[in-house]
Amino acid sequence: MGNCGMEDLIPLVNRLQDALSTVGQSCSLHLPQIAVVGGQSAGKSSVLESFVGRDFLPRGSGIVTRRPLILQLLSANTEYGEFFHCKGKKFTDFDEICKEIEAETCRLTGSNKGISPVPINLRIYSPNVLNLTLVDLPGITKVPVGDQPADIEYQIRDMIMQFICKENCLILAVTPANTDLANSDALKLAKDVDPQGQRTIGVITKLDLMDEGTDARNILENRLLPLRRGYIGVVNRSQKDIAGKKDIEAALLAEKKFFLSHPAYKHMAESMGTPYLQSILNQQLTNHIRETLPAFRSHLQSQLLGLSKEAEEYKQYSCDDPARRTKTLLQSVQRLAVDFEKLIEGSGDKVDTVNLSAGAKINRIFHERFPYELVKIELDEKKLRREINYAIRNIHGIRTGLFTPDKAFEAIVKKQISSLEGPCIQFVDMVSQELITTLYQCINKLSSFPKLQDETERIVTTEIREQESKCREQVLLLIDIQLAYINTKHEDFIGFTNAQQTYNQSNKKTVAGMAGNHGVAAPSRLIVVRKGWLTISNIGIMKGGAKEYWFILSAESLSWFKDDEEKEKKYMLPLDNLKLRDVEKSFMSSKFVFAIFNTELRNVYKDYKCLELACYSQEELDSWKASLLQAGVYPEKVTVDGQGNGALENCTDPQLERQVETIRNLVDSYMSIIYKTVKDVMPKTIMHLMINSVKEFISSELLAQLYALGECSALMDESTEQQQHREEVLRKHAALKEALSVIGKFSTSTCTTPLPPPVDSSWIRPSSPTLPKKPVTGGGVRGHAPSVPRLPCSYYFPEH
Questions:
Q1: Which of 396, 483, 517, 737 could form a disulfide with 401 if both were Cys (CB 3.0 to 4.6 A apart)?
Q2: Residue 571 to residues 440, 546, 552, 690, Cα–Cα distance (Å)
Q3: What is the average pLDDT across 568-576?
Q4: Biggest alpha carbon distance in the chain?
Q5: C-alpha separations of 166 from 34, 190, 192, 499, 501 in Å
Q6: Where is this region: Disordered (predicted)?
Q7: Which residues, in sequence order, are bridge partners of residue 134?
Q8: Cross-strand partners of 597
Q9: CA 209, CA 153: separation in Å to the nearest integer?
Q10: In 599-745, which ranges are E strands?
């Protein structure tokens, strides 16, 4: 029988199975095959043994098939079996094949009733078989036995689904005739993955065990509970026949006699029985292979193309060649230097659209985090005036001073300059930590060589720490330089005369003037500083709860709209007298929050004293803070409430009040110069002493220091994982090439058989709730399916 002109297709797939079996499932390639699915004791093993004509499968009570068995049947003149795990060994005794299956099963699953998805590959050559490739799967069970886990039913279902969900797999759904077909586990699983019935073939076993007066004629004629590919009935040996060692050839004769003599089946005896089932499976598998082979070849080619470059590199690499090791070391260090520089300087080669690069993060530290930290450390107005007051009075002592003492100005300015030390050191630490994080990101690519990775990390990290120390010293030196000489002749300094002239205007300072005094450019009133989404998080549930709005920050107000079309304005909040306060992130929330409040304790929004605004990341939070700072909304200052020194005493001396105000204006003017200088010089210092130095070190000094260790050969020792990965890639590459070579020798320009027409299979109810449901068309009712006449065999499988 068989499909003429295509006899070699199934052996072709078997050769592909051999070629790809060396790489297991790592290729994600699904070869055409037939999966045998059914409940326990449904007769699956008996059907397979009838195909071979030999007893070779383990038998017993409960679950016997505990690992998938990939059975390749090949027509040959001699009869023997081969296991893939016993290459080169021929099994001519089929009892030995049975024992080997049991031993190999127990090797992975133990002697009890555990299961494993790792298949056993068995190839049987015989003159009594047609070319077939089948997968015998564990029978579906409901109750765990022995040491089986409680979820054994779901484990078996998952294992079966791994095979039958593949589009290249035909499903042989085996159901005993003496059970309710509508409750067939095999048909339910097939329905889940093949709702249109294009891959499902029904097999009805144990027809001889049905109750007297009943038969399965309507099922086998595909009238009741129809399938697109129909049903085939078989009669296997009974347990008594198996125990009595009844010959399978005799059983096949008895099966043929059963169908010819049974009044319900004799009119279709030619399309029933094990030999007919075997020939039909051969034809359908052959046709299925023919249809799927072009797509399978394309899949092979795409996988081979993806591996070619990596495999070529591994072929040229020899772990024992000193020259090759040296070259790989040099290339690895050069790649590290290039990757590090790209992450710092930016690159247009591969732009990350998900995360900020190291360079972008350092830029944010330079221009957002550092200016914000500088403003945060300023003293509040009351404390500053109190210190100026005490400085003036302490300098005068018991005498009454007629002039404003410049020493008071110098003392206050030096104290303010000294307070910059903390933010500047923190600035250095942040950049240093970012460089180390960038280094870790780059050296992860050296994981193939653990010793090289460890030594590179140690050497470069040490260099970063050394440069960080130098940078700290330079920063402290810059602050000491500013403390060493207070330059009151600076061109941007207002001087004492101008300071006294501003006394009467002290109460008219604008937000823009405050921004100028702090070294932050005052934005134009017409310019929008920032736009973006923020969530107002402190609105109670009774008033609508937290909501997200589109915010627009300008130089004079903060407005929010319903959405980013900016048509429906919800509110506009003037920036006068507003301050910024950090809000600690709550345990249950994933958002980052800050608050805006009025310094005069007025309500900010409706009856709320403050407005808590939330965003989704620390980067957004820092950016909003920097934008608010630019618009003149400054962080909340920490006030000192001491006993007797906590508040400025009422000043009734007009002369002292005038001197305090004069020095206050002078301090503002001079510190604005300092802030501008520090914000300009600090990034340059760090760029020169840390970032550029580390880049230069990696590109020019790292290789020399690695060589100085005197262990260059040991540095290039591969990790076990890398060795396994290289071997797997080369093995997979060779298997794919061999598979393509096998396909290339075969022509697919042969005929095939069309699928039977669709039938109403809605009678099959969905299976386990854990399995995915798929929509099913049709409306048949169990027991009342539409009459679908069984077409002649020549329609389904015409001879070519």
A1: 396
A2: 47, 15, 11, 46
A3: 88
A4: 136
A5: 11, 11, 12, 85, 88
A6: 753-785
A7: 34, 71
A8: 579, 610
A9: 27
A10: 610-615, 634-635
pLDDT, the chain, mean: 78
Yes or no: say if 185 and 39 are a contact pair by the CB < 8 Å rule: yes
So what's the pLDDT on residue 459? 92
> What are the structure tokens assigned to 280, written together?
């039909």
Query: Which among 712, 535, 530, 701 has a CA at the least distance from the CA of 631?
Result: 530
| Predicted structure pTM score | 0.51
Mean pLDDT, residues 2-31: 57
Sheet holding 610-615, edge to edge: 569-574, 557-561, 547-554, 528-536, 610-615, 592-598, 578-582, 634-635
Predicted confidence band of residue 435 (pLDDT cuts 50, 70, 90): very high
Instruction: Give yes or no for a contact between 493 and 487, defined as CB atoms under 8 angstroms apart.
Output: yes
What are the tens digits of pLDDT across the range 545-564? 788 999 999 888 899 998 88
Note the pLDDT tens digit of each residue in 211-244. 888 888 888 988 877 888 889 999 988 777 777 7
Residue type, 746: F
pLDDT tens per residue, range 701-734:
998 888 888 777 777 777 777 777 777 788 888 8
Range with the lowest mean pLDDT among 119-128, 183-192, 352-361, 401-410? Answer: 401-410
Residue recorded with tokens 């409306």: 779
pLDDT of res. 591: 85
Please list, in sequence order, all residues whose beta carbon lies within 8 angstroms of the beta carbon of residue 140, skipping any fewer than 6 positions away: 37, 38, 39, 40, 153, 156, 157, 160, 185, 186, 189
Task: Label residue 348 by pLDDT band (50, 70, 90).
Answer: low
CATH code of domain 38-294: 3.40.50.300
Query: What is the mean pLDDT of the segment spanning 622-637?
Result: 81
Of 698, 510, 534, the residue nearest 617 (C-alpha): 534
Say whether pLDDT at 674 is over 80: yes
Fold assignment, 528-631: PH-domain like (2.30.29)
Task: Give the other-Cβ count within 10 Å of 393's Cβ.
Answer: 16
Beta-bridge partners for 572:
559
User: How far apart are alpha carbons 156 and 144 in whole angstroms?
Assistant: 11
How far is residue 595's CA from residue 567's CA, in Å, rounded to a whole number? 26
Q: Is the pLDDT of residue 410 over 80?
A: yes
Give the DSSP letter string of 520-576. -PPPPTTSEEEEEEEEE----GGGT--EEEEEEEESSEEEEESSTT--SEEEEEE-T
DSSP one-letter string for 592-630: EEEEEEETT---SBTTBSEEEEEESSHHHHHHHHHHHHH
Indicate the DSSP class of residue 75.
Answer: E
What gap in Å lies between CA 452 and CA 458, rounded to an integer?
Answer: 10
- Cβ(709)–Cβ(715) below 8 Å: yes
Report how far residue 725's alpha carbon sits from residue 478's, in angstroms, rounded to the nearest whole number: 53
In the chain, residues under CATH classification 1.20.120.1240 are 336-494+655-716
Q: Could you confirm whether domain 336-494+655-716 is CATH 1.20.120.1240?
A: yes
Are 292 and 32 a contacting pair, CB within 8 Å?
A: yes
Q: Under a CB-based contact definition with an 8 Å cutoff, are residues 280 and 233 in contact?
A: no
Q: What is the pLDDT of residue 249?
A: 84
Q: Which residue has the higher pLDDT, 502 or 325?
A: 325
CB-based burial, 197-208: b 16+ in 10 Å, e otherwise: bebbbbbbbbbe
Of residues 34, 20, 28, 17, the one with CA closest to residue 286? 34
Provide φ and ψ at 535, rounded to 5°.
-105, 125
- Backbone dihedral angles phi then psi of residue 7, each to the nearest 5 degrees: -60, -25
pLDDT at 380: 63
What residue type is 27 in one-letter code? Answer: C
Q: Is 70 exceeded by the pLDDT of residue 785?
A: no
CATH 2.30.29.30 in the chain: give the residue spans. Answer: 528-631
**3-state SS, residue 352:** coil
